[in-house]
C-alpha cells in the first residue's frame, strides 16, 4: 500500500494505552493522519512510503500540548524578574504592554514563541493574548496547531475598548477560522479580578451555545483569593460557580490555592486544570496540588505560562518540574509517575482544549502530530525505561524532528516553516526599542 510517510523508530510511546513503550515500531502517516502503528519489520513489507524516516536512536511521542501561553510575551522575556505577581503585572508588564502592544509586537513575539516551542517538541499551544487574529494567522502560516483565546478584560487596551468589543471581535475571529483545521478558538476571560459578572455570564451562555471551552486564570495567588473575599464575599471559584461557569468547558489555570471541597467540585463538574509549575515557582504564587487533583479525577494539563514569568516555553522541562514538584507537595515519591506526567503534557492537554479526538496520542485515525527525541546522547544513557528518560533526564535540545498533521516543521533541529535568522534579527530590534523607550 502506498502512503505518504513511514517513520521507523527505536521506541514509540503512544501515550494511549498508558505507560506503554513499543520497541522497533513504525508509524505510517497518510494524508496528515496516523494510518497505522506496527512493528517495523511488518511495516516495511506492508507499506510503500513516498518518504521514509529511519530514527534508530529515537523515541517518538505525540506532540506536546502547551495548554497555557501568552506567546507574544516572549519579547518581554527577562524584562522584570524576581517580583511577586501583582507587582510584576501592575508596575512592569501592564505599563509596557500599554505602550508597545500592537499587531507588529504580537506578530514578531508569536513567531519567536513558535520557533522556540517547535524546537522544544510543542505542536499545539493554547494562547491568551491581545490581537488573537495575528496569532491565528501566524500559526496557520507556520503549520502549528493553535487554540486561540478570545480574550476579554473589562478595561480598554490597544485591541478593544470594553467587554462588548472584545467579545464581538473574538466571535468574528472564531467565524473567520472555522474552516482552518489547525486553528480553534476558546473564550479567554483573563481572570476573575479583571472581568466582571456581566461579561462572565454572557461568556457562559456563548460557551454553552457554541460548545466552546473557557480558559481563565483562576486561584493563582493568595492575594487573588483575599481580594475576591473583600469584593464579592466569596472565593473566585464559588463566584464562577454561581455564574454557571464551573462545568466541563472550564479550563482553570494555575489553581495554586485550592481546598478539598473545591477539588471535589472541579471533579464533579468535569472541569480541567492547567498546571504551570515553573511560573508559579518563579512568582512564588504557591503550589498546585496536581497529584491530589488527578487522584480526585480532575483532568490536569501542563502549561508554561508566558516567557515573561517562566522564562522559557520548554514544556518538556515543565513536565519534569511537574513530576518532581508533585512528589514534594504530596510528600510521596510515588505521586505523579513519569508516564502520568507525559500524559499531562500531551493527551490531558488535548482533552482540556476539546482536541482529544484529534491529537494528544499516537492513535490510528488521529492527526499525525509527532515528535522525535534522540536518546543516543551521553546525557540519556543507559536507557532502562524510555519514558523515565524523557521525563527525568532528556532536554528539549534532544528534540530533532517535529510533524504537525503530517507536515514536517522541524528536521534535524532546523525549522522548515519559520525564518530563524529573520526572527533573531527582529527580536533584537524589539529588545533595543524596549530598553531605550520603556
How many DSSP-defined strands?
16
**Through-space gap between termini:** 60 Å
Q: Please list the strands of the largest sheet in the order they lie side by side.
A: 3-2-1-4-13-14-15-16
Strand content: 15-25%
Estimate the global geometry from the Cα principal axes: globular
Name the average pLDDT: 96
The helix-and-strand class reads alpha/beta
Portion of residues within helices? 25-40%
How many helical stretches? 16
Query: Could you describe the largest sheet, including whether it forms a barrel?
Result: 8 strands, mixed
The poorly predicted ranges are: none
What is the rounded Rg?
Answer: 21 Å
Task: Please tag this protein with its features.
alpha/beta; EC 3.5.4.28; 8-stranded mixed β-sheet; globular; 438 residues; 4-stranded parallel β-sheet; hydrolase; single chain
Structure overview:
The protein has 438 residues and is α/β, with parallel strands linked by helices. 40% of the residues lie in helices and 24% in strands. The protein has 16 helices and 16 strands. The protein has helices at 40-46, 85-100, 103-119, 132-142, 163-176, 197-210, 222-232, 236-242, 260-269, 277-282, 290-296, 315-330, 338-344, 347-352, 386-392, 420-437, and strands at 2-12, 22-30, 33-39, 48-62, 64-69, 122-127, 145-152, 183-189, 214-218, 250-254, 272-275, 299-302, 370-374, 399-404, 407-411, 414-415. The longest helix is centred in the last third of the chain and has 18 residues, at 420-437. The radius of gyration is 21 Å and the shape is globular.
Amino acid at each position: 500500500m502506498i502512503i505518504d510517510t513511514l517513520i521507523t523508530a527505536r521506541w514509540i510511546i503512544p501515550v494511549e494505552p498508558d505507560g506503554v513503550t513499543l520497541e522497533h515500531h513504525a508509524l505510517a502517516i497518510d494524508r496528515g493522519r496516523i494510518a497505522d502503528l506496527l512493528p517495523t519489520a511488518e511495516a516495511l513489507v506492508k507499506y510503500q512510503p513516498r518518504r521514509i524516516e529511519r530514527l534508530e536512536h529515537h523515541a517518538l511521542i505525540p506532540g506536546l500540548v502547551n495548554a497555557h501561553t501568552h506567546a507574544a510575551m516572549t519579547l518581554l522575556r527577562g524584562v522584570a524578574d524576581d517580583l511577586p505577581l501583582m507587582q510584576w503585572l501592575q508596575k512592569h508588564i501592564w505599563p509596557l504592554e500599554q505602550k508597545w502592544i500592537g499587531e507588529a509586537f504580537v506578530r514578531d513575539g508569536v513567531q519567536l514563541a513558535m520557533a522556540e516551542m517547535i524546537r522544544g517538541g510543542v505542536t499545539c499551544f493554547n494562547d491568551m493574548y491581545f490581537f488573537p487574529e495575528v496569532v491565528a494567522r501566524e500559526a496557520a502560516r507556520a503549520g502549528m496547531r493553535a487554540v486561540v483565546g478570545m480574550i476579554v478584560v473589562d478595561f480598554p487596551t490597544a485591541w478593544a475598548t470594553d467587554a462588548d468589543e472584545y467579545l464581538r471581535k473574538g466571535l468574528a475571529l472564531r467565524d473567520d477560522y472555522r474552516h482552518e483545521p489547525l486553528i480553534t478558538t476558546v473564550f479567554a476571560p483573563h481572570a476573575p479580578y479583571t472581568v466582571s459578572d456581566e461579561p462572565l455570564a454572557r461568556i457562559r451562555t456563548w460557551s454553552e451555545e457554541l460548545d466552546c471551552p473557557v480558559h481563565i486564570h483562576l486561584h493563582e495567588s493568595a492575594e487573588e483569593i483575599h481580594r475576591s473575599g473583600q469584593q464579592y464575599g466569596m472565593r473566585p471559584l464559588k463566584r464562577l460557580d454561581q455564574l454557571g461557569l464551573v462545568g466541563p468547558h472550564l479550563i482553570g489555570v494555575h489553581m495554586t490555592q485550592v481546598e478539598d471541597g473545591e477539588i471535589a467540585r472541579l471533579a464533579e463538574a468535569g472541569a480541567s486544570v492547567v498546571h504551570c509549575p515553573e511560573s508559579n515557582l518563579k512568582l512564588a504564587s504557591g503550589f498546585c496540588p496536581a497529584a491530589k487533583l488527578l487522584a480526585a479525577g480532575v483532568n490536569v494539563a501542563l502549561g508554561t505560562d508566558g516567557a515573561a514569568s517562566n522564562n522559557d516555553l520548554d514544556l518538556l522541562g515543565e513536565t519534569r518540574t511537574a513530576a518532581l514538584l508533585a512528589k514534594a507537595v504530596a510528600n510521596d515519591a510515588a505521586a505523579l509517575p513519569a508516564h502520568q506526567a507525559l500524559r499531562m503534557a500531551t493527551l490531558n492537554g488535548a482533552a482540556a482544549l476539546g482536541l482529544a479526538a484529534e491529537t494528544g496520542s499516537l492513535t490510528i485515525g488521529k492527526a499525525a502530530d509527532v515528535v522525535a527525541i534522540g536518546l543516543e546522547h551521553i546525557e540519556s544513557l543507559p536507557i532502562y525505561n524510555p519514558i523515565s528518560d524523557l521525563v527525568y533526564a532528556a532536554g528539549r535540545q534532544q528534540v530533532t524532528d517535529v510533524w504537525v498533521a503530517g507536515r514536517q516543521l522541524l528536521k534535524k533541529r532546523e525549522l522548515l516553516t519559520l525564518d530563524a535568522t529573520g526572527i533573531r534579527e527582529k527580536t533584537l530590534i524589539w529588545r533595543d526599542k524596549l530598553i531605550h523607550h520603556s
